[in-house]
Amino acid sequence: MREPFVLYETRGRVAILTLNRPDTRNAIGEHADCAELVEAVERANADRSISVLVLTGSGASFSAGGNLKGMRDRDGIGPLATPADTRDNYKKGVQKIALAFAGLEIASIAAVNGHAIGLGCDIACLCDMRVASDAAKFAASFVKMGIVPGDGGAWILPRTIGYARAAEMILTGDTYTAAEAREMGLVNKVVPADQVMDEALKLADRVAANPPRAVRLAKRLLREGQHSRLTDVLELSAAFQALAHETADHKEAVEAFLDKRPPVFTGA
Question: What value, to the nearest 5°, has the Cα angle with vertex 58 and ends 57 and 61?
């Protein structure tokens, strides 16, 4: 029986997804791998009791990206018999991962426990925040394999670290240490390897402590702000604010602040 590629667990308002192929450094080699990750992301997003998704890898790596053996043999998530087949293969595989993360209303954190290479780096960057092991390495190394970021990396990286830094990563294909990644804004925090999950969960708990509806609405505004005009974002902000003002959690937050007591949020 096939072992699950993605392990799913919850802790309070936090969903923890673990890529579970340590023997291949959590490389994504099959459409079933893509489908499992998409399904897990969508499951967390649909669960109203969840406010934060934490993604990590099992073993010593976060994800080595695509499976090169599959590329060579033309039987994986990359090239197939014809260019038309290959195009469709990307659209129904790795690109669905990008769309699933882009559609998240909940916050997402990558706990980068080790190397995040190629597709693995881009998946980490699809998350809102990243906590990295001091032993982690990052690379958008597609060009070194004679290919381009077919997973949406040319859209993802510039929105994470800016155009110039993204151009450097994508066009050189160089590998960067966790310290270098922190300096360029690729990660929020670098910690010792044995503290990655603890730190990621602490960050997740800080987010999850807030009213769930407000977290989801604020997250959507952040995403819309990446590609919309100011006038459009202001209009959407006013609409979302009108919804937020009517929630029970907003009323509880105001009352708790005025009463000088800790708030108790219910998600209502």
Answer: 65
Question: pLDDT-derived band of residue 214, with 50, 70 and 90 as boundaries?
Answer: very high
Q: What residue ranges do the domains of the chain occupy? A: 6-208, 212-259
d(CA 229, CA 19): 36
6-208: CATH homologous superfamily? 2-enoyl-CoA Hydratase; Chain A, domain 1 (3.90.226.10)
153-166 average pLDDT score: 96
Quick one: which of 100, 104, 4, 102 has its CA closest to 52? Answer: 104
- 135 vs 181: CA distance, rounded Å: 11
- Check if CATH label 3.55.50 holds for domain 212-259: no
Contact residues for 234 (Cβ-Cβ < 8 A; gap 6+) = none
**Cα 43 to Cα 52: distance, rounded to the nearest angstrom:** 12
Single pTM value for the model: 0.95
Q: Say if residue 169 is exposed, middle or buried (CB neighbours under 10 Å; 0-12, 13-18, 19+).
A: buried
**Model confidence over 222-260: pLDDT tens digits?**
999 988 999 999 999 999 999 999 999 999 999 999 999
Question: Is-contact 213 50, C-beta < 8 A?
Answer: no
Please tell me which residue, 76 or 253, carries the higher pLDDT value.
Answer: 253
